[in-house]
UniProtKB/TrEMBL annotation:
This is BREX-5 system phosphatase PglZ. It comes from Halobellus salinus. Pfam families: PglZ. It comes from the Archaea.
């Protein structure tokens, strides 16, 4: 039953009636307000009826100080005084109104005075009258329409909340009253369709049944046949107009405590409908219902079975749908994180399965370095999977992912990934032995010559030369810049780095000069990079760039003056240094580095109006699985320079491990005296004093080390 009047209208009616009933033509109306919450309303009504308004600030006797001459409303913010002699004349010539906010609110429901009396008693019996008064004032002040009696009663009982079902679903037993007030809430729940709560008097039971009813409502909304549920839990069909949605969905869309409610509605100890869901034939039809651990566990078990059956694409689709539903409902919580990693697990498994089935292996550079479909994506998937850690450790122990996810992840990132690296290494060896596998490719030592048109055009150009920026990390960096600065055009292209893929040769290759002037030769037993027959050291590299008009800036140098030049070469060395120090969890460190590099590049590109920028790298790297045994190899007796991944000499045997690079390989920069034996097998390395075993290394001929992703950034 809705209200028919507002508090201001009822106050005006009360004053007008008192004036009409008064013996005097200009009466004094005395208004006693037990609680004092009607002052503004009474004052406004008095003014509207052209009555002077006077209020007692401390004692009712203040009103006697000046005798009224015209119609006046005397307002006293307390209950009526027993000393009637104070206002005996008012009682004879004027009128007395004894109305606190509870009584006046009851008058707003003229069509149901009997039931409206509960509002008055609710105010009079309340321990905290201020809260009840505030609710009555907000609901009946005339702003926002008139409430129903039941809605107002609900708000009084629930301290301003207007939906008993949503209140219980969100807060549980917290803030629930006891005794008769609890029974009032129970009755309100039943009136709102929660039949399962009928007859219950225990707060915990009422909450549990209400939540179970709400979970059932959501399951039915997603397609569960409600006949599977007991009668008292079957949601009533919607008879109203418009779109209805489950009460629990509404709660979770508005609550500020999403994470806390994830613990409630995905708690393994509260499997609301386990008996129904454990035998349900098509649980994925209910995937968009993010409540009930029984469904969550069933979905994970089904997902694991599909994964073990090799249905990886379906696993990606299902995991993404579940992740997106949980994330939109709860935000980032352990359940969300586990499904996010499930996407990565299935993606990697699919990539590796595709690799196993691959038939065309004619060109290892294209095979690995194709921007859209290259196998560099396997490395990216492994990298992301390792960075995402062990999200199942945040779940309750009863969740089935705690027993399965680690094995799936380890199998992919260790044994299966190592098999892929070994196969890829064998393929490189075969193609190098077959002769000239890299002819026709873009080579890093040709960069300044190939890009001469842009580098010498007078445009402003920035080079970001990042040590050990592997293909997949360069792609992530490019994507990051696209998101941050969408006005720029960001292109990626595949280049072949210098072999062996060590920093010394890779950075030397990225120096100004003709592509024919770069050379690597054996001098006094040491492999040396040269430009125009001069050895390239760090100092020489800087000199070559500065003589060609470039500002040379090292990471953390703080050279703001250098950035004012129209051609800047900026060097970032963190990734290689991090890997060589053999830090634990270095994938996470690399991920942080990419974010840092992206911030710096975006800041520089955003501040300066660069016509063109390049992100270049000297080499990539191999990150081996966490648990792998390295085979130590003794370098051949006639080897001169020895590292972990390659040895150099003038006369190396042809039948040793790995593959020989020399002038016959037609790389374009090895002189006829240098023979370099490089390793392709990921678990082999030459013994070299002072260099420990590590998961991170480079220098060999795995594509992860020498197939590079150069990024070009221009103004659109």
């Amino acid at each position: 039953m809705p209200a028919t009047k507002t508090l201001p209208q009822c106050a005006e009616d009360a004053i007008q009636t008192a004036i009409d009933d008064a013996a005097d033509e200009d009466p004094v109306i005395l208004w006693w307000d037990d609680g004092g919450y009607l002052r503004d309303i009474v004052k406004h009504a008095s003014t509207k009826l052209r009555c002077e308004f006077r209020a007692a600030e401390q004692t009712p006797l203040e009103l006697r100080a000046d005798a009224p001459r015209d119609r006046t409303v005397w307002y006293v913010p307390q209950s009526s005084s027993d000393d009637v002699d104070w206002f005996k004349d008012v009682e004879h010539t004027g009128e007395v109104v004894e109305q606190h906010i509870g009584k006046l609110a009851a008058r707003c429901f003229e069509n149901d005075r009997l039931q409206a009396a509960t509002i008055r008693t609710a105010y009079e019996d309340a321990e905290n009258r201020e809260k009840v008064a505030q609710t009555l004032y907000e609901e009946l002040n005339g702003e926002g329409g008139l409430p129903s009696l039941q809605g107002l009663q609900t708000k009084i009982v629930l301290d301003g909340q207007d939906d008993p079902v949503q209140f219980v679903l969100e807060h549980g037993t917290r803030n629930l009253p006891d005794g008769d007030e609890l029974l009032k809430i129970r009755d309100l729940l039943v009136d709102n369709g929660v039949t399962a709560a009928e007859g219950q008097s225990d707060a915990r039971t009422i909450v549990d049944r209400t939540r179970r009813w709400a979970v059932a409502e959501w399951l039915v909304d997603e397609g569960l046949d409600k006949s599977r549920l007991p009668n008292e839990y079957q949601p009533e069909p919607n008879t109203g107009f418009g779109i209805s949605r489950p009460e629990l969905r509404s709660v979770l869309s508005k609550t500020a405590q999403k994470r806390e409610l994830a613990d409630v509605y995905l708690d393994p100890n509260r499997r609301f409908w386990h008996d129904v869901l454990r035998t349900y034939d098509e649980p994925w039809k209910l995937v968009d219902c993010p409540v009930d651990a029984a469904l969550e566990h069933r979905l994970w078990d089904e997902w694991t079975q599909s994964f073990n059956s090799g249905e990886y694409e379906e696993c990606v689709t299902n995991a993404r749908q579940r992740h997106d539903r949980l994330e939109s409902t709860y935000g980032t919580v352990p359940w969300t994180n586990v499904w996010e990693q499930a996407i990565d697990v299935a993606t990697l498994a699919d990539e590796l399965a595709t690799w196993d089935e691959r038939g065309d292996t004619s060109d290892v550079v294209d095979l690995y370095g194709d921007i859209d479909g290259g196998t560099w994506q396997i490395d990216n998937a492994v990298f992301n999977l390792i960075v995402s850690g062990e999200p199942e450790t945040g779940l309750p122990e009863e969740h089935p992912a705690t027993a399965t996810l680690d094995d799936l992840r380890s199998s992919l990132t260790e044994s299966r990934y190592l098999e892929y690296l070994t196969d890829l290494g064998d393929l490189v060896v075969d193609q190098i032995d077959a002769g000239s596998p890299f002819v026709g490719e873009n080579h890093a030592h040709q960069f300044f010559a190939e890009e001469q048109e842009h580098l010498q055009s007078g445009q402003s150009v920035a080079l970001f030369i990042i040590d050990a920026l592997r293909f997949d990390l360069a792609h992530e960096l490019a994507d990051s810049i696209r998101r941050e600065l969408p006005r720029l055009e960001v292109d990626e292209s595949t280049w072949v780095g210098t072999l062996p893929s060590d920093t010394e040769f890779g950075k030397a290759a990225l120096t100004p000069g003709s592509k024919f002037s770069f050379n690597i030769e054996l001098q006094d037993g040491e492999l040396v990079p040269e430009r125009n027959d001069r050895k390239i050291t760090t100092h020489r590299r800087q000199t070559l760039l500065e003589n060609d008009g470039w500002s040379y800036i090292m990471q953390d140098a703080g050279d703001e003056v250098g950035w004012s030049n129209t051609r800047v070469a900026y060097y970032w060395n963190d990734i290689d240094e991090t890997g060589e120090k053999e830090l634990t969890n270095f994938e996470e460190v690399f991920s942080d580095r990419i974010e840092s590099i992206s911030r710096i590049i975006c800041e520089k590109l955003d501040k300066g109006e660069w016509d063109r920028a390049y992100i270049l790298s000297d080499h990539g790297f191999v990150s081996l699985p966490t648990h792998v045994d390295i085979d130590d190899l003794y370098p051949p007796d006639n080897a001169e320079q020895v590292t972990r991944r390659w040895v150099a000499g003038a006369d190396l045997d042809d039948d040793g491990p790995g593959v020989i690079l020399d002038e016959d390989t037609h790389l374009g920069y090895l002189d006829d005296h240098a023979r370099v034996r490089v390793l392709a097998d990921p678990i082999q390395r030459f013994r070299n004093q002072g260099l420990p075993d590590a998961r991170f290394y480079h220098g060999g001929v795995l594509p992860q080390e020498f197939v590079l992703n150069f990024v070009t950034i221009t103004q659109e």
